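Morning run. Coffee first, then this:
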Amino acid sequence: MNDIRVNAAELRQALAKDIDDLLDEVAAAMNAAEGGRIIADSEEPVRNASAAFRQRLYEKALSLLQAKQEAFSPRPGGLKNKGKQDTTHQTINGRVRVCRTIYWSLQTGTIVPVDTWLGIDRQRFSPGVREMCCREALHCSFDIAGENLQRTAQLSLSGRTVRLIAEHQGRAVLAAGRKGLLGPGFTARQCTQETLITGTDGVMIPMVTEEQKQKRRATESAKRAAQGRRSTAKPGRPRSGSDGPYKEFKVLSFYDPDKSHCHVVAAAGNHEVLGRLMRREGQRLGLGSAKIKYAVTDGAEWIARQYRQQLPMLDGHILDYYHLQEKVVETSYVLYGQGTPRAKDWQKDMMSSVWEHGSLVMLHRLGPYLRRHRSGPKKKALLSLRDYVGKRVAMTDYPAFRKLGYDCGSGPTESLCGTLSSRLKGSGMRWDKDNAENMMALGAIYHSRLWQAYWKAERKTG
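And here it is:
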């Protein structure tokens, strides 16, 4: 098969008329353009003519190569020749038509050797088309993605097709991750100062409820009846909707101090699912070999518990400074009123004490206020702050953390949570749980800088 080649002379001969047609169309477009707007009048016709020629060029090149391959390949033994049959395959060079021989036997069923040889037996769309669809679908709705692809890449794909491609590819990303075929693009030893920081949080994603699904089905059924169309739904019981309007998804990140390396994964599921992700990705990154490794989180007890169980090698656990500040601000509003000078002074006093001296000093300074307010909402707010800080004394030793050069903010993790979930929270958007997870998986490899490596591997497998 390596000896099968198409040369330029063969292509030139096969495309002689197409080349002439292209040149005629370009000349006609240039001649029809009016002075003062030559480029404006000619660029679209020339672009369209070039696209049509590119599709014919690619299709004929494939046809020549296929003819040589079939001429030198032995006929499959024990199979009945069922004749020729056309198929099409969408590529970034246009939709190409392939006429190939179909073989059949009772034992093996239908076999199409040319499809396997071309690499079109498993997918209806080429890797290039699938990548473009996924890239666009990450940043806008599927319908708009389809329109963008038509305008920029001259690919005619409906929003529904873009959605199916993106969701299918997201499932493939998740499967590759579970099988160990897709891992981080770096190791702990490659990080700046061999330091690896981790963080995690939950994000709420809007789901399609059962009631909404039934309403959608009724609306679509009425449209079909009015237009005289038949249903294209697969036979069997339709998918059930979510039992609630929102579901929490978990986002887990790893990054180094200067953010030159970043790895993020996301998943639907509970804290145990997150724990397994922590252990799996920590092992793949070689977290234990990092010189410095610690977690910065919002202080949720379930997060801290999973980190201690799954990644016991971490050197420290830090409460995000700004989450603590939010608690202090809320308490100051109860004590002195929202936005008042006294509230701002109290916030500054408490946060400066914990930043400069640690949370034990802050707890000590809360004592007089607790004695002054013996009941009511102010007492309740102070007790809540005291209990919150008291459970996280080790996580709020900011002077020690700063001395070690540790980050005390979970900004990178918070940013990734927002970035991965923003595509799923658009106006009117509702998702099935698995499809939301698929889309987040695509976003995760994009923001982990694994996009090029993943699609390079996809092209190798067809």
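The radius of gyration is 30 Å. Good start to the day.
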